[in-house]
Design brief:
about 70% helix; elongated
Length: about 230
């Protein structure tokens, strides 16, 4: 059967690795896009308008991202379930002595990241958390994403949850990237220490790049545009 290899342990690990790479690419692109907030309201609103005015690109990308998430989560759960059935408790305890916190809690960090992603979508994309966000428009009639994001991050609880989730994302990536190298067969004895350091540096870059936004808002370095101070 054509689908049989994907249901094997090797096939499932390959699915996790490839879907993980896809999600990693999205995280990078999403962060770079959000950095427009540091350039001011017009830059971020123009970027958001560009995305929304091209539904032929936006919706396939959204559907593709959803498929990648489902594949990543589904394959991970299947691997975890098989490992629990096949691995004795003694072996698991012995392995935990030599593994990192991130490697032992990949499922936990992944679930928290998933919960955060759902909240983030409900907050800023679907605008279910604060329906008033849908009524925000700038002087050019575009959806005022800048004001929406600044208003959201002005709430310490929202900003705190975002920062916490991003730190967990960094921990998840620090181990996940190493696993991807190994699954793809490029993590040999020579390259392993360099790739592990590279994974940690990339994870740190993503953490700092993302939490810089809510921290800048909370610190008053990024504020509401003129005329929106009463929101």
């Amino acid at each position: 059967m054509a689908t049989q290899p994907l249901n094997s342990s090797v096939g499932l690990k390959l699915l996790v690795a490839l879907s993980g790479l896809g999600l990693f690419g999205f995280v990078i692109m999403h962060m770079l896009g959000n950095w427009q907030i540091f350039l001011g309201p017009d830059a971020l609103n123009s970027y958001a308008y560009l995305l929304k005015s091209n539904p032929q690109i936006l919706w396939p990308a959204r559907i593709g991202l959803l498929v990648i998430i489902l594949v990543h989560v589904g394959a991970t759960f299947k691997i975890k379930s098989r490992n629990r059935k096949a691995r004795p408790d003694g072996y698991a305890s012995e392995k935990s002595l030599t593994s990192t916190w991130a490697s032992r809690h990949m499922m936990l960090t992944g679930l928290v990241i998933l919960a955060f992603t759902l909240f983030h979508l409900a907050h800023y994309t679907l605008m279910l958390v604060d329906p008033s966000f849908a009524d925000l428009h700038d002087a050019m009639g575009r959806h005022d994403v800048y004001t929406m994001v600044v208003t959201g991050f002005s709430n310490p609880f929202v900003a705190g949850f975002y920062i916490f989730a991003i730190i967990l994302l960094g921990l998840h990536l620090s181990h996940g990237l190493s696993s991807i190298w190994q699954t793809l067969g490029i993590n040999n004895k020579v390259w392993r220490p360099y790739l592990q350091k590279l994974g940690c540096l990339i994870a740190l870059f993503i953490v700092l790049g993302n939490i810089a936004m809510p921290i800048a808002v909370l610190a008053g370095l990024i504020g509401l545009p003129a005329g929106a101070a009463g929101l």
